[in-house]
């Protein structure tokens, strides 16, 4: 029913969507997973034409991609380094027949951005410098990873063509090249919409 509502443009509350996940995942939702309304708004901007390939940089439990795939005609890809979260994301997509989504178990620095047309980034590297609410103990946080991952994303975005769209949520801008121009902001400046102009 949740995905049917999203397809019909009927609002879905986070508390309802998060029921798709196990208790441990639900407890992390407010801190780590994109709110449904934010995901829908961002996805509509990024998937501005049918079949547009959108990459979620650090997809976690797949919430952004699942919402985007259900509410637009884009094709959503989530890359996530935790295999357990990738398995969970795939299980939900399969169970609810969300077909225009794919989850990739990999590290971001193994991903070639030229395979995608638009990008979503919810500060997935921040866990390497803020240890107050870790997702699990499978990944050992390292401050240096925050900087190296951010640098890699910036370098990859720099290579994208003019017109490439990017949405950031709770970003500190370290991963955004100067060639991207801020188009507008939402959610008190936390949700930012960018386009490459040079």
The largest pleated sheet is described as: 7 strands, mixed
**Rounded Rg:** 16 Å
Helix content: 25-40%
**Shape, per Cα inertia axes:** globular
Strand content: 15-25%
Number of E-state strands: 7
Number of helices in the DSSP assignment = 7
Distance from N terminus to C terminus (CA atoms, Å) equals 43 Å
Strands of the widest sheet, in order across it, are 3-2-1-4-5-7-6
Q: Compute the average pLDDT.
A: 92
Supply the number of structural domains: 1
In quaternary terms, these chains amount to: single chain
Regions with pLDDT < 50 over 5+ consecutive residues?
none
The CATH class name reads Alpha Beta
Helix-strand category: alpha/beta
Q: Judging by the overall fold, what is the CATH architecture?
A: 3-Layer(aba) Sandwich
CATH H-level homologous superfamily name: Vaccinia Virus protein VP39
Element order: H for helix, E for strand: HHHHEHEHEEHEEE
Q: Kindly report the CATH topology.
A: Rossmann fold
Plain-language structure description:
The chain is globular. The longest helix has 16 residues, at 143-158. It is built from seven helices and seven strands; from the N terminus they run H-H-H-H-E-H-E-H-E-E-H-E-E-E. Strand 2 (75-80), helix 6 (83-95) and strand 3 form a beta-alpha-beta unit. Helix 4 packs across helix 5. It has a single domain, classed as Vaccinia Virus protein VP39 (Rossmann fold), CATH 3.40.50.150. The protein has helices at 2-7, 14-17, 23-32, 36-46, 63-71, 83-95, 143-158; strands at 53-57, 75-80, 101-105, 118-121, 165-169, 180-186, 191-196. The termini are far apart. The protein has a seven-stranded mixed sheet with strand order 3-2-1-4-5-7-6, covered by helices on one side. The protein is 35% helix and 19% strand. The chain is an alpha/beta fold and 198 residues long.
């Amino acid at each position: 029913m949740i995905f049917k509502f999203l397809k019909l443009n009927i609002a879905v509350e986070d508390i309802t969507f998060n029921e798709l996940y196990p208790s441990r995942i639900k407890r992390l939702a407010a801190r780590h997973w994109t709110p449904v309304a934010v995901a829908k708004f961002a996805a509509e901007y990024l998937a501005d034409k049918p079949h547009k390939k959108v990459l979620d940089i650090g997809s976690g439990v797949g919430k952004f991609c699942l919402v985007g795939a259900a509410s637009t005609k884009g094709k959503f890809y989530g890359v996530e380094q935790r295999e357990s979260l990738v398995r969970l994301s795939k299980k939900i997509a399969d169970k609810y027949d969300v077909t225009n989504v794919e989850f990739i178990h990999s590290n971001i620095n193994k991903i070639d951005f030229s395979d995608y047309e638009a990008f979503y980034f919810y500060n997935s590297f921040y866990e390497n410098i803020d240890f107050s609410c870790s997702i699990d103990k499978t990944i050992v946080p390292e401050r240096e990873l925050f900087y190296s991952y951010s640098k890699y994303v910036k370098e990859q975005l720099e290579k994208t063509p003019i017109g490439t769209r990017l949405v950031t949520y709770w970003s500190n801008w370290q991963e955004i090249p100067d060639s991207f121009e801020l188009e507008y902001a939402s959610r008190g400046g936390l949700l930012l919409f960018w386009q490459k102009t040079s």
